[in-house]
Amino acid sequence: MRTSIKFAALAGLVGAAQVAALSQAIDFELKRPHILLDMLGDAAPQLAGKLTVLDGRRADAPSLERIKAFLATKYATPSDNPVLTDVASGFAEFFHSNMPEIDTGWVPLFDLVDLRGSTHDHFDIADTNAGIVYEQVKPGAEIKKRTQISESKTPVGYLTLGAGLGILDDWLSFNQFWRIDEAIDEFRAKHFDEMAARHYGLFTALGNGVDVAFDTDDATTFNKAAAALFRAVRGKGYAVGQNAGLYVVCAPEKVGRITRMLAADQGSGLVQFGTLQEPIAYSVRGVVSSTHIPANDSGYYLVLPGRKLKRGLWKDLSVETQRNASMRAEDIYAHSQYNAAIGDSAQVRRVKFA
Length: 354
What we know:
There is one protein chain. This protein is of the alpha/beta class. The chain is 32% helix and 23% strand. The chain is built from 9 helices and 12 strands. The chain has a 6-stranded mixed β-sheet. A 4-stranded mixed β-sheet has the order 2-10-11-5. β10 (309-324) and β11 form a beta hairpin. α3 packs across α4 (87-97). It is globular, with a radius of gyration of 24 Å. The two termini are 39 Å apart.
C-alpha cells in the first residue's frame, strides 16, 4: 500500500518556490530505496520480505533513531522544504509500505563497488587470483614473495539509464497532487524493476556450461551441484569450504518445491520414508525468488555470493527539471548509472529438475 499523498504541502507555495520545492521533493522521494539499501545493506531484502532466510541470521527492522542517525550523517534533508518535514518518520513508513514491493533479492548476491562521487568510469574484476602460494619455510630461510603480478581483468563500465515525465501545470494549479504521487511511484517502480531485470539477467544469460543435470531426486541433485560448485572455485583464492553459505535463485513457481527439498535435513521424514534418497548436505543462506526468472526455467540457480560477482553504482536515481512552456508543464528527467557482472561463472550452477 502506498503512503499518503506526499506533495499536498506544495499547495502552500507559489511560482518558482513551488517548482523548486517540487523538484527537490521528487529527487528525494526517488532516492528513498537507495538510501534504505545503503543503511540496511544485504539485510534489506530479508527485511522487505524478498529473501527467505534459512540460516537463522535474522536482521532487525530499522528503528526511528537509527534512521535519524543515518540521515544526519550521510544525506542532506533540507528543513525548509514543507514536503520533506519529519523525514525519518516518512522513511519508517516507506520501509513498511513501499519497500516490500521493490524486488531487491539480487542485492546480497553481488559485492557492491561504490563509485558515487568517484572519477572512475569503470571498475575491474580480476579474471584470476594473484597467484599466492604458501610454501614450507625452513628455519632462517627467506619467504618468497610474488612481485610481478600481471593478471587479466574484465573492465565493467557504467550504464546510464534515463526516463522523462511532464508534470502538467494543471496538476499544481488545481491541487491534483495525487497525480504526482502516482507518477513518481511509477517512475521509481520502473527504475528498480529495470535494475532487478539487469542483475537477474546475468544469471539467466549464462551458457549451459554451468548446468547440472538431474540425478535421482531433488536433494541428490542439489548436493551434486553444490559439490561441483565448491570444486570449481577451489584454488581460486576464495577460501571457500563446504560450509559456505549459498543462495538459491528461482522463479516464484519453484519456491514451494525448493523449500520442501531444503527441509530434507538429517532425520527428516522426507529422508526416513524414502521420499528423498539423501539429506541436504550443504548450507543455504536464503532463497531468492523473482518474476525476472522465467516461469519455464527448467530448474534454479545455486549461487556463491560476492567474490567476483560485483555490481557498481555510480549514481543513485536523480532528477533534473526543465520548463516546457509549449506543454504548460515541468519536465522531470530522471537518470541513474550502474552496472554489474559475473566475473567468475564457476560461482553459479544452474540446477536442473527432472
